[in-house]
Write a structure and sequence with these properties.
The structure is a single chain. By secondary structure, the protein is of the alpha+beta class. It has 7 helices and 14 strands. The longest helix is centred in the N-terminal third of the chain and has 14 residues. The two termini are about 40 Å apart. InterPro entries: Acyl_CoA_acyltransferase, GNAT_dom. Pfam families: Acetyltransf_9. GO terms for molecular function: acyltransferase activity, transferring groups other than amino-acyl groups.
Length: about 290
């Protein structure tokens, strides 16, 4: 006879956190830390995450956490929920815990969100589709582009992030509400660099693609006609003329020498009367596996 599995809300006690981190390390990520879990789920400026844990006796054998997220459209805030961090102990798989934790969590959070979205990996995507979620037909692709090093030097004035006006001007598009507090929280890791100017903000990190020095763009915010200038500033500063980016609606018109597709982004959502897939406009930072 199988032992009873009880599903209870996550209270973020020290006892729970110790077991959760060990569960994730043993089944998903050996490098996972308590500090990262707290940053992601307790310090999120959109609110503390709601979580469910599956208990077998005094042992946590399953976890599902739901991040709250804010989008903005025409100045109106829409609240979303983002199911993340699912893990089930290898000895308890095949019992439907993934589905049970997900459906119960969404039910418990009803009334606190306007729509649901997620960016699953290849392992979890089939589970979402079985539960009736839809793969967004509007998802774009991750691309690598070559920046023209002979462009005219841009005239941009460096600024502090705190001195910049509100950066959101989403119009009809539905985008993450990228406030200054959000940017400081999301990109607190020192691997990210934030360059702020009078005309906009670029968030990036330095990397290598096929051994060639390159940079990844997570955010381009501000006046779109200056996005190419922001890229050129970074390219010249680090002598890196390959850029890896997500080809969002805002970046379709980048003036690159050439670009090529690396892979397709996968986004799933449950649509409602407030939101349709063709309105969503993500950045690389929205879709990064960190979240």
């Amino acid at each position: 006879m199988k032992e009873e599995i009880l599903i209870k809300p996550l209270n973020y006690t020290e006892e729970e956190l110790v077991q959760i981190v060990e569960l994730i390390r043993s089944n998903l990520d050996p490098e996972f830390t308590t500090e990262f879990f707290k940053w992601k789920h307790l310090e999120n400026p959109f609110g503390k995450s709601y979580g469910l844990v599956a208990w077998s006796g005094n042992t946590i054998v399953g976890l599902r956490v739901f991040m709250f997220w804010e989008f903005i459209r025409n100045g109106k805030i829409l609240r979303s929920i983002r199911p993340v961090d699912t893990v089930v102990d290898s000895n308890y798989r095949g019992r439907g815990l993934f589905k049970k934790l997900t459906l119960q969590g969404l039910e418990n959070c009803k009334g606190q969100y306007d729509f649901i979205f997620n960016t699953p990996n290849n392992n979890s995507l089939p589970g979402y589709l079985k539960m009736g979620w839809e793969k967004s037909p509007n998802s774009s692709t991750f691309r690598v582009g070559v920046i023209n090093p002979f462009q005219t030097k841009p005239h941009l004035l460096r600024k502090e992030l705190d001195t910049l006006p509100v950066l959101n001007d989403s119009g009809e598009a539905l985008e993450t509400n990228k406030t200054k507090n959000y940017l400081k929280w999301r990109y607190v890791d020192p691997k990210y660099k934030i360059y702020t100017f009078d005309k906009g903000v670029i968030v990036f990190s330095i990397t290598r693609i096929k051994g060639i020095k390159s940079f990844i763009v997570y955010e381009l915010l501000g006046e779109k006609e200056y996005f190419n200038d922001l890229l050129l500033v970074v390219a010249r500063r680090f002598n890196a003329y390959l850029v890896y980016y997500y080809n969002s609606k805002d970046l379709h018109d980048l003036r690159l020498l050439t670009s090529f597709e690396r892979k397709e982004a996968v986004v799933v959502l449950k649509e409602n009367e407030e939101v349709s897939a063709d309105q969503l406009n993500f950045s690389m930072g929205d879709l990064e596996g960190t979240l």
